[in-house]
Amino acid sequence: MAVRKFRIRVNGVVYDVEAEEISVEQSATSTSAPSVPSAPVAAPPVPSEPPKAAAPVVMQDGEMVIEAPLPGAVLDVKVQEGQLVEVGQVLIILEAMKMENEVTAPVSGRIKSLRVQKGSSVDANEVLVIIERV
């Protein structure tokens, strides 16, 4: 079979590669791959802590309305209505694009209304929690 040349781009880096097309019979009888030096691959950076979602916050009548920062599924609800919360406390954990995102309290106060439950799906900017400042 003929060797074909290709130019491919991987993560913004262009590589010129040569590939030989083989038939199904040849691939079934081949037990080992030829040794071909591969291009160096950089390991993705590992964050030291999971990212916290910056939930949109709207102030209405002295209350903080916390909205979903992105569409996803509610993995866990860490608070209950009537509970006192502190700034930075995790309220809800959302899963979006296979990543867990913590939605935290932007202010201290009392949970006035909890609009989601574990397992529910949410859209971006959907109201999750209303915090009443105390």
Describe this entry's structure for a reader.
The model has no long low-confidence stretch (mean pLDDT 81). This protein is elongated. A five-stranded mixed sheet has the order 3-9-8-6-11, with no helix packed on it. The chain has a five-stranded antiparallel sheet with strand order 4-5-12-10-7, with no helix packed on it. Strands 1-2 form a two-stranded antiparallel sheet. It is mainly beta. A hairpin with a 2-residue loop joins β1 and β2. The chain contains one helix and twelve strands, in the order ββαββββββββββ.
List the helices and strands and how they pair.
Layout: E1 3-10, E2 13-20, H1 24-29, E3 52-53, E4 57-60, E5 63-67, E6 72-77, E7 84-85, E8 90-96, E9 99-104, E10 109-114, E11 121-122, E12 127-132
In short:
4% of the residues lie in helices and 46% in strands. With 134 residues, the protein is mainly β.
C-alpha-based Rg, rounded: 25 Å
* C-alpha end-to-end distance: 77 Å
**Number of separate strands:** 12
Molecular shape: elongated
Order of helices and strands: EEHEEEEEEEEEE
Biggest beta sheet summary: 5 strands, mixed
The oligomerization state is single chain
* Strand order in the largest sheet: 3-9-8-6-11
Low-confidence stretches: none
The average pLDDT value, as a whole number, equals 81
Q: Percent helix among the residues?
A: under 10%
Number of helices: 1
Decide which structural class fits the backbone.
mainly beta
Strand content: over 45%
